[in-house]
């Protein structure tokens, strides 16, 4: 069995780095997700007892004091850190500039969704998952579409 400090790669692309005991996550360690997010935790026999999740852009999730996108402040995290763009220059996603969506697809936050195949791929076009009916409906109702016309800032020549 694995014991001590180690590294473990899961089939999903997620990686664990930290303490192991009797083949389980045990002690301090972190999960590194393919999306760039990190979950640092204190593990006990494979289960996290306390931990903190940080998104790829550095925003840390706090279940008790979470104020990001709470209905009162709708700014993206990059806008909180760097400020607003001048009037007339929109920011449609936390990534600026946003990813270019393939034709016929949607940007669902962790990748692109093709409604014909019902498959979600990451931004490097690696398979993530098949969408069930509930996710399909949510994506097609709420997410950015490739065929939407977006306003672009064009500096004066």
Automatic annotation (TrEMBL):
GO CC annotations, alphabetized: motile cilium
- Where does the UniProt entry say this protein principally localizes? other
Does the keyword section mention Lipid metabolism?
no
Superkingdom is: Eukaryota
Its keywords, alphabetically, are: Cell projection, Cilium, Flagellum
Subcellular localization(s) per the UniProt record? Cell projection, Cilium, Flagellum
List where the protein spans the membrane: none
InterPro entries, alphabetically? Morn5
Protein name (database record): MORN5 protein
């Amino acid at each position: 069995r694995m014991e001590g400090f180690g590294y473990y790669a899961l089939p999903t692309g997620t990686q664990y780095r930290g303490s192991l005991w009797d083949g389980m996550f045990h002690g301090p360690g972190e999960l590194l997700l393919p999306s760039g997010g990190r979950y640092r935790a204190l593990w006990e026999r494979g289960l996290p007892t306390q931990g903190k999740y940080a998104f790829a852009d550095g925003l840390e999730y706090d279940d008790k004091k979470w104020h990001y996108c709470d209905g009162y402040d709708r700014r993206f995290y990059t806008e909180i850190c760097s400020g607003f763009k001048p009037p007339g220059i929109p920011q449609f996603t936390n990534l600026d500039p946003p990813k270019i969506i393939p034709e016929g697809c949607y940007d669902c936050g962790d990748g692109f969704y093709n409604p014909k195949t019902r498959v979600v791929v990451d931004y490097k076009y690696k398979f993530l998952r098949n969408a069930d009916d509930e996710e399909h409906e949510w994506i097609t109702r709420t997410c950015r579409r490739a065929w939407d016309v977006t306003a672009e800032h064009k500096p004066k020549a």
